[in-house]
Amino acid sequence: MSGTPENGLFTVASSLSFDETISRLVQEIEAAGMTIFAQIDHRENARAVGLRLRPTVVVIFGNPEMGTPLMQAYPSLAIDLPTKVLIWEDAGGRVWPSANDPKYLQRRHGMVEAAFEAVSGLLRRAVEPRGAGD
Known about the structure:
- The protein is of the alpha+beta class.
- The chain has one domain: TT1751-like domain (TATA-Binding Protein, 2-Layer Sandwich).
- Helix content is about 35%, strand content about 25%.
- The chain has a six-stranded antiparallel β-sheet with strand order 1-2-6-5-4-3.
- A hairpin with a 5-residue loop joins strand 5 and strand 6.
- The two termini are about 25 Å apart.
- The mean pLDDT is about 85.
C-alpha cells in the first residue's frame, strides 16, 4: 500500500486483472453490507466523445446508517461521502485501486473518530488472490 500525506490518497497494487479487481471490490462492498450507489466508467465516457483513456472506473458506495451520523457531527464530511474508490490501469497494464486515506479524512474534517479504517481492509481483501478454498 502506498500513499502520500500531501495528496491524501492511498493506492494498492492489485494482483488481479482490471475487471477482476472491480468484481472483487463489488463483492467485498456487498459482503460488508454497504450499498453501491454508482459506478462511473471514465473510459466509456471518453469513448462516447471520441477520446481514448486507459481503463478507469470509480465505484461509489457507503452505508447511510453509518455515514449520516458522521455527517451530522461533521457537516463538511458530506463532500467526501459516499466513499469512492478509483480503479485505474497504468501504461504497463498494472491495476491500481486508490481511495482517500482514512487519516487524511480524519484530519481534513477534524474528526475524533477513526471511521474509515474498514475501507483500507476492504481494499486489501479486494486486490489479493484468494486461495483454492475461497
